[in-house]
Amino acid sequence: RRFRVRMSDGKYVRFLNELEFYKGDILANIWYSDIIIRIDVETGIVKTIYDFKTLWPSNERSSSADCFNGIAVLDDDVLM
Q1: Distance (Å, rounded) from C-alpha 10 to C-alpha 45?
Q2: Strand order of the sheet with strand 35-40?
Q3: How high does pLDDT run on average in the chain?
Q4: Which of these, 29, 31, 30, 21, lies nearest to 1 by C-alpha position?
Q5: Residues 59-69: pLDDT tens digits?
Q6: Closest by CA position to 74, among listed 29, 22, 30
Q7: Is the Cβ–Cβ distance between 46 and 6 less than 8 Å?
Q8: Which of 8, 45, 54, 65 is the most buried (most CB within 10 A)?
């Protein structure tokens, strides 16, 4: 099945990377950002935005540092 992912305001989300199926939804990293989104598989609408910018602020990164890339779930309640 294919669908376009949209935010709740209707704007489409691009550059999805590192998709993971989690508790009936899809988790996806937005490439070149420090954001992971949780997507409803029935509607394609983003249910939750996880913003990790404060974990490694851009002003503390070297010029060669990119962005976060990857998703790990430690248990049912902890998303990394």
Answers
A1: 8
A2: 16-22, 25-30, 35-40, 46-51
A3: 86
A4: 21
A5: 887 777 666 77
A6: 22
A7: yes
A8: 45
Amino acid at 19: L
Q: Is the pLDDT of residue 27 over 80?
A: yes
d(CA 55, CA 52): 6
Q: What count of other Cβ atoms lies within 10 Å of the Cβ of residue 63?
A: 4
DSSP E strand stretches across the chain: 16-22, 25-30, 35-40, 46-51, 73-75, 78-79
Structure tokens at 17: 């990377």
**In the chain, what percentage of residues exceed pLDDT 90?**
48
Q: Give the residue from 27, 77, 30, 29 showing the smallest Cα distance to 47.
A: 27
